[in-house]
Amino acid sequence: MADAPIFIGAAEVADLLQYGALLPVLERALVDFSKHDGMVVQPVRSTVPVDKHNGFLGVMPAYMTESDTLATKIVRFYHQTAFGTSSHQATVLLFNPSDGSLRAIMDGTVITEMRTAAVSAIATKYLKPDRLETLCILGSGAQAISHYNIFTQMFPFKQVRVWSRSRESAERFAGQVQGQVQVCTSAREAVLGADVVITVTMASEPVLFGEWVKPGAHVNAVGACRPEWREMDDALMKNAVLYVDSKEAALMESGDVILSGADIFAELGEVVKGTRPALCEKTTLFKSLGKNKQEAYTMPSIQFCTASCLFPFSTHCLIESKQKLLWTSLIHLAHHFSRN
Ligand SMILES: NC(=O)C1=CN([C@@H]2O[C@H](COP(=O)(O)OP(=O)(O)OC[C@H]3O[C@@H](n4cnc5c(N)ncnc54)[C@H](O)[C@@H]3O)[C@@H](O)[C@H]2O)C=CC1
Ligand SMILES: O=C(O)C1=NCCCC1
């Protein structure tokens, strides 16, 4: 009889997954994904609208030939959730690629929060302006917190500003993170003069306008993952140099890209690999959808990295950390767990 799949819950994921291990594997995942050589199979996320309940279910499968890793992330994102329940909830399934059997089930919510923030941090590492004094975060939910945590660890910001639709949630955010945060009464006030701006809202209409953004600043646009949703106005989309995690996903899922008609300059993986330039002296915008890594990653269609690719890598990090062993594949890892 086949071994039962192992289960790795949220607390264990949170305990084991460290940014230090996650960042290099995500960089590698971004590069592999952007080679487009057929070695990473990660279709654009398939999303089912659950209109009756104002939500969506996204499925993000991915297969990576080199590491022989087969995984799927399933993520739900709902506008209205019961008090105290996260709007985003994800599960990652790992399969044995040789026969397709299920080897592991793990919480994907923490992975989604950390993977997404880590990829924004990678984009910022490559695209940042010379001066890094002020960080602006629009939104105050789970992604705002994970972005705050890694951005304040990785970069020497002197000031962090936050804006949210309600001052109460912005103040709650300021009380949850370690370190000083300036709560702003308007998005404009938060954005003016900022060197790096992060948008992590569930908005479907623009909350960030090009006229507010300092020339030469870098923007990480993380929300608005539906073809009809926006976080940015056309002025910003057209004036910034546009980088994405996946061109295919951006052209199918990002309302900011599709509706503005902005030209995509490069995938982030191409910049990390060095085949496309990082135009740091210009205003840059990284449109994240999770395709490459994340999804896979945790979400496979990753949006893997957004999708798919990223996901398996994240899982590797988890397991390596726990076992202090270098595993070469998720499946090996899953087997190991099931025997211990
Ligand atoms: N690019 C990627 O790989 C990923 C993107 N996301 C996206 O990031 C965004 C934030 O996700 P979470 O922090 O997990 O969600 P959350 O529900 O924890 O926080 C959402 C934030 O958006 C604000 N908000 C909601 N509606 C708004 C509106 N109409 N205008 C302005 N603000 C509004 C809320 O007040 C809250 O501060 C979402 O759009 C989510 O879909 C999430 C995971 C991965
Ligand atoms: O990659 C993910 O996970 C998500 N991306 C976009 C919004 C929903 C979750």
What does it look like?
It is a single chain. The chain is of the alpha/beta class and 340 residues long. The chain is built from twelve helices and 15 strands. β3 (46-50) and β4 (55-64) form a beta hairpin. The longest helix is centred in the middle third of the chain and has 19 residues, at 109-127. Residues 292-312 and 320-340 have low confidence and may be disordered. The structure holds 1,4-dihydronicotinamide adenine dinucleotide and ligand LZCNNONV. The site of 1,4-dihydronicotinamide adenine dinucleotide has 27 residues, from α3 and α4.
SSE string, helices as H and strands as E: EHHEEEEEEHEHEHEHEEHEHHEHEHH
Q: How are strands sequenced across the largest beta sheet?
A: 10-9-8-11-12-15-13-14
Bound molecules: 1,4-dihydronicotinamide adenine dinucleotide, ligand LZCNNONV
Total domains:
2
Proportion of residues in β-strands: 15-25%
Shape: globular
> How large is the radius of gyration?
19 Å
Largest sheet: 8 strands, parallel
Pfam family, one: OCD_Mu_crystall
GO molecular function: pyrroline-2-carboxylate reductase activity; thiomorpholine-carboxylate dehydrogenase activity; thyroid hormone binding
Subunit structure: Homodimer. Binds the thyroid hormone triiodothyronine (T3); T3 binding inhibits enzymatic activity.
EC number: 1.5.1.1, 1.5.1.25
